[in-house]
TrEMBL record:
<feature type="compositionally biased region" description="Gly residues">
    <location>
        <begin position="665"/>
        <end position="675"/>
    </location>
</feature>
<protein>
    <submittedName>
        <fullName>PhoX family phosphatase</fullName>
    </submittedName>
</protein>
<keyword id="KW-1133">Transmembrane helix</keyword>
<keyword id="KW-0812">Transmembrane</keyword>
<dbReference type="Pfam" id="PF05787">
    <property type="entry name" value="PhoX"/>
</dbReference>
<feature type="compositionally biased region" description="Polar residues">
    <location>
        <begin position="632"/>
        <end position="641"/>
    </location>
</feature>
<dbReference type="InterPro" id="IPR006311">
    <property type="entry name" value="TAT_signal"/>
</dbReference>
<dbReference type="InterPro" id="IPR008557">
    <property type="entry name" value="PhoX"/>
</dbReference>
<keyword id="KW-0472">Membrane</keyword>
<feature type="region of interest" description="Disordered">
    <location>
        <begin position="627"/>
        <end position="675"/>
    </location>
</feature>
Amino acid sequence: AMAGPARSLKLNFNAVAKNIADMVTVPVGYTATVLYRLGDPINASTPEYRNDGTDSAESFAFRAGDHHDGMHYFGLRGRDDSDGSSSNRGLLVMNHEAITPSYLHPTGQTISGSGSSAMRTVPNEVIKEFHAHGVSVIEVRKNRSTYEYRGDSAYNRRITTLTDIVLSGPAARSPMMITAYSKDGSRTRGTVNNCANGYTPWGTYLACEENWAGYFRRLSTDDANRTAKELASFRRYGVSGNGRELWATATASSSDDTIFSRWNAMKLGSSSNGSDDFRNVANTYGWNVEIDPFNPKATPKKRTAMGRFAHEGAWLGPVVPGRPLVWYMGCDSRNEYIYKYVSDVGWDPRDADRGMAAGDKYLDHGTLYVARFNADGSGNWIPLLFGHGGITPANPAYAFGDQADVLINARLAADAAGATKMDRPEWGAVNPVNGEVYMTLTNSNSASRTLASTDAANPRFYNDPKGPGGTAQRGNPNGHIIRWAEQGGNVAATSFKWDVFLFGARAGMDRNINVSNLTSANDFSRPDGLWFARSGLLWIQTDDGAYTDVTNCMMLAAVPGRVGDGGAKTIVNTDGATTKSVTTYVGAEPGESKLRRFLVGPKECEITGIAETPDGRALFVNIQHPGEDTRPNYTDPSSYGSHWPDGGGSRPRSATIVITKNDGGTIGAEGNAGG
Ligand code: FEO
Ligand code: CA
Ligand code: CA
Ligand code: CA
């Protein structure tokens, strides 16, 4: 049940200063400990990571992947850790979104040729990269004042781009899902670019597929072989080009060659037996993948009822017995949409121990909605249903065939529904105190958010003379955080009320830009990760923040108010020649008592992924891709962009850290915003 009104939640640390040190900086009185790094072994027979690029491809099936991202802590006393009894031992489940190839192989990727002739010539490098993507399940336990992971736990598991996965829900077994791997469209192989995440009330994890489209190879020669519908879909999702990492170009005679050719989404038709026919393979990616961390033998399932897009994550709303369950979701690209999924049936607490069978009940039968934000501060959820509101075979942009087609092409259905184009939706978070939903809109550029297209929910267009990377950028380079309250507190409501909680900006900027009146203790740019502690404390993480010449990416703690606590505000935008005033709705200015910088990461990293133990005394945070921007000179380790976390001349590694308070207290704040 929901907690009562706010009491006294107070930040318990002094703000950390912006800095560009190659280390994790936390407040005085706190300790950050490295827990789980790229390459760390997860079984007893895998050797320690050498971190010089020579660790074998096969060994990576039992090592931490790269680019740690979204994560969740499941207490090991049972699936329901809400009683706080399981803070000493749990399962940490996390995504490995992508790779930094420079540091994964001896001297980077081996590639011959260039452009559309570029080829990966060392298949083992590609196999290593397959394993370095995906998900980790690791057991962690308290050890004195901090935590460690168990290298030999039977729960430890990797899910990768090679794992067999079931397609479940309304789009499974559609003719649009048939591939050489699954002639009835009921399965696919692997998951990729798992960005943020979600969890369920029955103790399972959701790994969300974000920038999957870029991994597929589909050259322009394929266009002539495809239908108008297929081309409209490929264009809307960006399935074209050589394929990031060039996986489809690798070949091997000694192993199953389709592990490479499945990344080729072209209609090949060159083999007589159809073994190379992966024309539909891209339709089997772009979903939320349910994983049962408590059952290592359970096959993961892609839950197609939740729609296919560039999923950032899926955030569970308030769980009330008898009421439907809701997950809020964002599609992270410029001018994309915010969605929610509402289960058909109400929550039955007896399902808490049913694992993936509960997933079949709540995640395969429900309604996908997309959000429209109105100029008067109200909003609407529009259902994406075949046959309704322009989502029909007669639609001029895309002739929808059935509900499977609607879910596979959710972006096109949302276009037809007239949803609001947002400035890149990233993470969401649901306030445990009052059920209000927050979502980061990380940034937009002047091509996608023009002065003319500013609206109440995406209200800023400005020139930041010293934006991300220290260079001038126009549009909304610093991003903002929107929030909404469902009508009547009902998760299945079709209308809501919204405002903008915070605007990213550099302290000292014009108040039409620094709308939230940020100071040097709490200024930030490009909000991305977002997470509510059980106390009602909100954590904000940044990706490629502005002023990377003066600060690395960071994490801040906020004590939020509620939707509507700041009122209407008119922002005056200018491109230098023309001005446009936009009336929006803003949260109360936080001030330094309610918003402070808690952490700054090492060089060239992103701070993303956060989980806490039920007692609120340990916070797990992911440090993603330190040193990724600098191209290394392998004969001179001092040229590496970062040496975090191992120091010396080492290659940088993405890693999970655990943060504890030296006096054993709760992280970030004392007290509670609820009862
Ligand atoms: Fe993977 Fe939108 O961040
Ligand atoms: Ca992100
Ligand atoms: Ca981002
Ligand atoms: Ca990143």
